[in-house]
Amino acid sequence: MKKIHSTPGASVHKSSFVPPVIESASTSTAAIIGSFSKGPMMSPQQVRTWVAFEKKYGGLGTEALSSLCTKPFFDNGGKAIRVVRIGSEQIKGVPPFLQGLSLLDRIGDFNILFIPQTEQLPDTHAITVMHAAIALVAKHRAMYVLDVPQRDAPRQTVRALTTWLNQQSGIHHPNVVMYAPRIQLPQSRKKASLHTIPASGAIAGVMARTDQQRGVWKAPAGTTAILHGVQSIEQTLTQPEMGQLTRLGINPIRQTSPSQVVAWGARTLSSNREWQYLTVRRLALFLESSIQQGLGWVVDEPNDEQLWSHIRQAIEVFLQSLFRKGAFQGHKAQEAYFVKCGPDTISSSDQIAGNVNIMIGFAPLKPAEFINLTIQQKAKSVRQA
């Protein structure tokens, strides 16, 4: 503490403490659970290139679905993926998937999850895996790119997808996204038929690429969201069909030229209007993760006015840096975000319990309305100070 004299006979004590800078949390580390021809079993490993993946888990020669879906992740700009190998071939039961999810839960540190082999499971098994995956991504502030089961019934048409989605409960979650139709990759052998696979790996790569090039607040959709390495799509959608999918929260994949396929939508499956846009949801998750990680020092501080001031200062500096990068709407900071942490968010009982309640509001690029977040940190009880 340093003493600053302002008027004769009076003094003001001002803290010289400067809160640590809040760093941006990762948004583009993917995770895949599935079967691979080789590699560590039930031991999540991080891989950073396709060459390294081929060496450790096997390449496309095996024609394993999970490997076929991993290649587009790297082709589309993905830089890091956690691989959880649960078998060597098609998995018939649910337990290996649940074990893989449990292993991923212990490690955390992933932002985008996809499990392509749910496509090969019976409906009842696939739904069990999906619900477990949704619980996991909700816990870790990640997104789940869901692939529709195809074993019990083909679900390639808009009508079939609509019927299936309307029959589900529990998957209309803000951390879940779904894309259609499936994509087609060229085979290594000339004149061979195309590989038709779920789009989840390619979409995860496009998300990662967009984050790195533009920021998590930029939608991974439109003419810039090209799916590299994809030759075509399973079926061409008409404009009315794309509109129908969008209304359901399913993001269309569109072939814009004979050699170019793009992701044409960026919505979640959420029924909550506030979280229907993928960019809004991912930006909120990013803010929550970054701020909670950046305020780890709070736990050792007394829960008082001085701490609250330092918290507001740290968060405002962080949000201002994002505002300058174009993450929010508004011509000035007051129109783009606000931070509340003080008597209006923290009661006397919260002080005693060591609860620090922080409210943050931000104006995403779309839609044009404020989104409010509430974050709770732990600090020392005022009785311990």
Structural class: alpha/beta
Radius of gyration over alpha carbons?
24 Å
In CATH, what is the class of the largest domain? Alpha Beta
CATH architecture classification name of the largest domain: 3-Layer(aba) Sandwich
- Cα(first) to Cα(last) distance is 16 Å
- Give the total of beta strands: 16
Helix content: 25-40%
* Overall structural domain count: 2
Report on the biggest sheet.
8 strands, mixed
The share of residues in extended strands comes to 15-25%
Tell me, briefly, the overall form: globular
Strand order of the largest sheet: 4-5-3-6-7-8-12-13
| Number of DSSP helical runs | 11
Order of helices and strands: EEEEHHEHEHEHEEEHEHEEHHHEHEE
Report low-confidence residues grouped into runs of 5 or more.
1-13
CATH topology of the largest domain: Rossmann fold
Please describe what this structure looks like.
The protein has 385 residues and is α/β, with parallel strands linked by helices. It has two domains: 30-213 and 221-265, Rossmann fold, CATH 3.40.50.11780; 291-385, Nuclear Transport Factor 2, Chain: A (Roll). The protein is built from eleven helices and 16 strands. The protein has helices at 50-57, 65-75, 95-107, 123-139, 158-166, 200-213, 239-248, 278-294, 305-324, 333-336, 348-353, and strands at 2-5, 11-14, 30-35, 45-47, 81-87, 112-114, 143-146, 176-180, 183-185, 195-197, 232-233, 250-257, 260-263, 337-340, 355-362, 371-378. The strands form four sheets. It has an eight-stranded mixed sheet with strand order 4-5-3-6-7-8-12-13, with helices on both faces. Strand 1 and strand 2 (11-14) form a beta hairpin. Helix 2 (65-75) packs parallel to helix 6 and helix 3 (95-107) packs parallel to helix 4 (123-139). The two termini are 16 Å apart. Mean pLDDT is 91; it is low at 1-13.
